[in-house]
Amino acid sequence: MSDQISFEPPRGMRDFYPEDMTWRNKVFDAFRAAGAAAGFEPYDACVVESYDLLARKAGEEVGDQIYHFFDKSDRHIALRAEMTPTLARMVAQRQGSLPFPIKWTTIAQCFRYERMTKGRKREHYQWNLDIVGEESVLAEVEVLGAACDALRRMGLSDADFKVHVSNRALLSELLAASGIPAERHAQVFLALDKRGKMPDAEIAAMLKDGGVDDAGVAKTFEILNLKSLDELPDGPAKASLQELFRLADIAGFGKCLEFDISVIRGLSYYTGIVFECFDAKREFRAIFGGGRYDNLLTTIGGSPATAVGLGFGDVVVTELLKARLGADAAAPKKGVYVGWMFPEQRDAALALAAKLRAAGEDVNLALRKAKPKQFFARAGASSCAKAVFLGPDDVAAGTAKMKDLATREEVSIGL
Ligand code: HAM
């Protein structure tokens, strides 16, 4: 071990310097506003969970990515990789008394020992929206509508992103009709979720390992080539998608959705409609993903309950916002920078700052004296929209000029 401590955070973990916080706040503000606008109630829990709750049956990638350890009393502890098991645990704990359907939201820090690629860190914040206890597709509509609303609030237009939607039940019907038995489907889903991320030959090998024969593999790839909902056989799974698209039109975000049978999702608990949002140019990883999961509550020992939800990470969307809106677009400038020329003006500057703050303004009071040129250069580079500079004449006159740093317009203010 070297005795020099590295100034870098551990690999995959992030520091948020002030310029990074501006972006994070912009993203979180949109999450919170969109969640509230759609009637989701905030909840939270500790990032540390028992390993048993998070441990996975073979196959799911996220199972191998869990950070886990034993505490001093030998409890097997883990950092959550996603919020959904915790949500299920909290719901199960109060299942007898909660007023279902419930709509809950949180921004959860999550840890995954990921292979580091663009858009994937080992720690990220994930906005979660979940509706538990509602069977109708209106639940999907409310969750997806809120997520699209958040993207719009961040400054993106509907042309910047697309939500790809499918239904695992539909894929199951098609696989069964092709002779692939239901008990193989979970394995098939996990293999198909890798499509586009690894060569088809490897996916075919995964399918064969899962017990699908050559003819089944060929049929599976054929199914994935279906492009439109109209080509698919009628049934409840197709009808639920049609209803989702119809309701999304009414709610004003139908154009943000698109049927895409290749959306599978890499988590085993989804049972119905699944979706994943991407930037329209497909330059980045998934912006958010989710779907309906009917068995998670029973898997952890609760009573049956249907649920639908999504996770929306902060990493990809911030990359996308920087690319589409420009690196300086994080926050509009606001507040007043107050400066002073000589020590004799310092008290007056402090008194002015106090008055402005009492009136509701955000004020950045210069901590040191400065020449006007120096001060205005600093103010211009700051996050403030306006600036006031106090020299001897201003204090003597009891008035000063408040300058709009963008337009250069000045107004006189009393001290
Ligand atoms: P997920 O697809 O694993 O789903 O993650 C959801 C989103 O979290 C991704 O689309 C991405 O934005 C972000 N994300 C995931 N892993 C990382 C990472 N390593 N670095 C950066 N961002 C990441 C879930 O986690 C489900 N629990 C979502 C859900 C909630 N389903 C129902 N309710």
Q: Any overview of this molecule?
A:
With 415 residues, the chain is an alpha+beta fold. It folds into two domains: 18-325, Bira Bifunctional Protein, Domain 2 (BirA Bifunctional Protein, domain 2, 2-Layer Sandwich), CATH 3.30.930.10; 336-414, Rossmann fold (3-Layer(aba) Sandwich). Helix content is 37%, strand content 21%. The protein has 15 helices and 16 strands. The protein has helices spanning 18-37, 51-54, 61-64, 84-93, 138-153, 168-177, 185-192, 200-209, 214-224, 236-251, 296-299, 314-325, 346-358, 372-381, 392-397, and strands at 41-42, 48-50, 68-70, 76-79, 102-111, 123-132, 161-167, 257-259, 273-279, 288-293, 307-313, 336-340, 363-365, 386-390, 399-404, 410-414. The strands form three sheets. An eight-stranded mixed β-sheet has the order 1-5-6-11-10-9-7-8. It has a five-stranded mixed β-sheet with strand order 13-12-14-15-16, sandwiched between helices. The N and C termini lie far apart (59 Å). The mean pLDDT is 94.
List keywords for this structure.
415 residues, alpha+beta, BirA Bifunctional Protein, domain 2, Rossmann fold, 2 domains, 8-stranded mixed beta sheet, 5-stranded mixed beta sheet, 15 helices, 16 strands, elongated, binds histidyl-adenosine monophosphate
